[in-house]
Amino acid sequence: MQSVVEEYETALEELKSTNEELLSINEELQSTNEELETSREEAQSVNEELNTVNSELQRKVEQLDSANDNLRNLFEGTEIGLVFLDKELVIRSFTPAIKAIFNLIDLDRGRPLTDIVSELADLNLRDEIEPVLANGQSRERRVVRHDGKAHYLMRVLPYRTADRALDGVLVTFTDITRITEFEEYQRELGHRIDAMLRVVLGMAQRSLAAEGAPRELIERLEALVKSYDLVSRANWGDVLLGDLAARELGDYGIGRDGRVVVEGPPVLVKAMAAVGLGMVLHELSANAARQGALSVPPGRVRLTWSIEEPDTPQARLVIRWREAGGPAGTPPEAMSHGRELIEIGLREQIGATASIDFADDGLAASLELPLSTGLVRSPASGSKDHGL
């Protein structure tokens, strides 16, 4: 009986131990189940994020396809010849329009462009491209076909990667044949107008001289021819105000050591404004030579201009004429032709306002032309002020 009791107690302890182990295993299973549930939730969350990323990726792919379609249509439809080259001048891609200039086929991708025959005269591609690869600065020049029937503006631009590293060049050819023909027409028209003006001036000089006309009238005609000659040389485009001043005042000695000082920043004026301003400068200089500062040895003239209140609606070109060392300015009893041209004519012609002051120490005049008229502009940034 005692032995059975001991066996029973031993069995009971083993059952207790087994029960404790089962409880521990149950707790572990419960913990594992909770971890599995957490993992399932995390997997579900990751799956949702993957679905979001996949949707975003699909949207990006659609945008990329659209961009590729746009780029392909641009390449196939543009009339500008484009060719992409690497640093070794090997062709990466090109537009169909370039085939009118270089004998290219689709299989030429991967070949150096310098190996391809060109229809252009006097063009050394390597000499044009290597400076761009060396300094990263774009350059351009005009080129023409061998037969002279087509003109192009060639631009060589640096090709940069997303991190701005120089990785080749982009060469473009824009057909400017019609522009060139129009420029030739303008030059021819300018020559004809110049010749006509000189014929008219010659006839006027002979006729007026025979009739005893005042010399001032002939000088005005000569000044008009000078102004038209200057704008004609510029193909009736913009003219530098400094060149206009040099043309009208050069006979009096321009420079700090001369009798006339001309100072001002680079300013371009349209042909219509150039003719009017040229006549004004002629009237001022002629008056100074007859009875002003340039009529006596110690007399001096200072001509300056500047752009005042730039980058505002009130921006304007201000030109100042100042005489010194000559006779005192005396206003005429009646308005002279020159004064009428300066104070009234310019306002009617180009919208400029002017004033003349007959001071004791010499004549002073000022002229203002608003930039809003579109007749005046500054050249590209980076130009420096200059004096003549």
Characteristic terms for this protein:
388 residues; alpha+beta; Beta-Lactamase; Heat Shock Protein 90; 3 domains; six-stranded mixed β-sheet; five-stranded antiparallel β-sheet; 7 helices; 14 strands; 47% helix; elongated
Q: What's the SSE pattern? A: HEEHEEEHHEHEEHEEHEEEE
CATH superfamily of the largest domain: Histidine kinase-like ATPase, C-terminal domain
Oligomer: single chain
- Average pLDDT, all residues: 81
**In CATH's first tier, which class of the largest domain applies?**
Alpha Beta
Task: Give the low-confidence spans.
Answer: 381-388
Which overall shape is indicated by the principal axes computed on the Cα atoms?
Answer: elongated
% residues in beta strands: 15-25%
Q: Give the termini distance in whole angstroms.
A: 138 Å
Number of domains: 3
Tell me the structural class.
alpha+beta
Going by CATH, the architecture of the largest domain would be 2-Layer Sandwich
Largest sheet entry: 6 strands, mixed
Q: How would you characterize the overall build of this protein?
A:
With 388 residues, this protein is of the alpha+beta class. It has three domains: 76 residues; 98 residues, Beta-Lactamase (2-Layer Sandwich), CATH 3.30.450.20; 154 residues, Histidine kinase-like ATPase, C-terminal domain (Heat Shock Protein 90). Helix content is 47%, strand content 21%. The chain is built from seven helices and 14 strands. The strands form three sheets. Strands 11-12-10-9-7-14 form a six-stranded mixed β-sheet. Strands 2-1-5-4-3 form a five-stranded antiparallel β-sheet, sandwiched between helices. It has a three-stranded antiparallel β-sheet with strand order 6-8-13. The termini are far apart.
